Amino acid sequence: MEKVAVLGAGSWGTALALVLADNGHNVHLWTHRENLAEEINRAHTNEKYLKDVKLPTSIQANHDLKTVVEDAGHVVLVVPTKAMREVCAQLKQVLNQKVIITHASKGIEPGTYKRVSEVMREEIPSNLYEDIVVLSGPSHAEEVSLRQPTTVTVSSEKLEVAEEVQDLFINRQFRVYTSPDLVGVELGGALKNIIALGAGISDGLGYGDNAKAALITRGLAEIARLGTSMGANPLTFSGLTGIGDLIVTCTSSHSRNWRAGNKLGKGHPLEDVLEQMGMVVEGVRTTKAAFQLAQDQGVEMPITSGIYRILFEAAEPRDVVDELMTRIRRHEMEDLTNILDEKMND
Ligand SMILES: NC(=O)C1=CN([C@@H]2O[C@H](COP(=O)(O)OP(=O)(O)OC[C@H]3O[C@@H](n4cnc5c(N)ncnc54)[C@H](OP(=O)(O)O)[C@@H]3O)[C@@H](O)[C@H]2O)C=CC1
Ligand SMILES: O=C(CO)COP(=O)(O)O
After folding, report:
1. Coil, strand or helix: which one is 208?
2. Residue range 163-187, pLDDT digits in tens
3. Which of 78, 143, 146, 252 is the best mutation target for the ligand 1 pocket, counting ligand atoms within 8 Å of the beta carbon and taking the most?
4. Ligand 2 neighbours by CB, cut-off 6 Å
5. What is the pLDDT of residue 91?
6. Residue-wise over 187-199: b if at least 16 C-beta within 10 A, else e?
């Protein structure tokens, strides 16, 4: 079995390390905190990020990056998007062999509007990797760590490389599909976190399931609108990394984005919410990136704009909901059919 280096021992990196170890791979897990590496190797736990989960004893944790990546055939990056550029810069200093690089992060870089794989390609010399693969889908770490049935999608520009990563992760509880649409897979996973913040806000305001369904449905429409304008296949958003991840994130208290939105809807200040979360809430930075991007691309994203104003301009959530409900009347599908017509005529 392969040596696999997993970089990032948060909830998702630890859960993916568990899947890889269950598959019999030689898993080395990197954390930049020496005390966490010690806990994982001694107690086979990661209490801060995966409470009450017993990890496979075969997982070897280390805070030394060079040791972790040495002789690995695969490197799996699972750090928050805001840390990705920095960790890639560290990785290129210690990587001495060609590997397959997979990332499982969900975000867009504010300012540059770059997807995670674009950031990676900027920071890591291309002679150091076969290809860059993204792994994404409806996959709460808590449930994966309990070996509950989960499906995800892997995508890369070279499908045969995505298939190698599919083989690395797939097992009876963790079913992995492939997709040729790297752009759509990355954007679906990133943008759904914005709508999940909105779903949490809606629940925090005391609104019901009708409002949640409206948010998910119209949120998907604007995610697909922006994604398609950035080169994604619109059909990807009807798959696991689009509607699938939207559903699992907007309807679950496992979601950090939903939980953060819920507290915002109850009137808690954003800085307090993020401080108390203790884990990354990717949707906050992604809302900023998507808001800027939508303006630059001339793409209408009313829900994202509303969430942006709540997060960064102190808009009252109830006022934002009222504005969304009283917008000029529209046909429901005209924009998507226009996009599909354009793609068919390309
Ligand atoms: N959790 C989940 O269920 C899922 C998460 N994801 C995605 O996975 C990505 C990682 O998130 P997740 O694991 O949940 O996040 P967590 O907040 O659970 O953990 C983040 C981890 O990254 C580490 N980290 C943060 N900054 C740096 C840095 N500069 N250098 C090195 N390590 C750093 C943290 O270390 P420290 O403790 O020192 O801060 C921590 O170990 C996100 O993009 C998320 O959207 C995708 C699917 C499911
Ligand atoms: O991406 C996830 C599930 O697919 C986890 O979502 P959160 O980051 O909101 O916890």
Report:
1. coil
2. 999 999 999 999 999 999 999 999 9
3. 78
4. 106, 138-140, 193, 196, 245, 248-249, 255-257, 282
5. 98
6. bbbbbbbbbbbbb
Contact present, 178 and 159 (Cβ < 8 Å): yes
CA distance 148 to 145: 8
Query: So which residues are the catalytic ones?
Result: 192
Question: CA-CA distance, 59 to 43, in Å (whole number)?
Answer: 11
pTM summary value? 0.96
What is the 175 CA–ligand 1 centroid distance (Å)? Answer: 22
Binding-site residue set for NADPH: 11-12, 32-33, 49, 106, 141, 256, 280, 282
- Tell me which residue has tokens 């976190």: 193
Q: Which atom of ligand 2 lies closest to the CA of 189?
A: 1
For residue 53, the 8-state DSSP code is: -
Positions in the chain whose pLDDT score sits under 70: 334-337, 339
For residue range 252-283, what is the model confidence (pLDDT) as tens digits?
A: 999 999 999 999 999 999 999 999 999 999 99
Domains (range + CATH), the chain: 3-180 (3.40.50.720), 183-344 (1.10.1040.10)
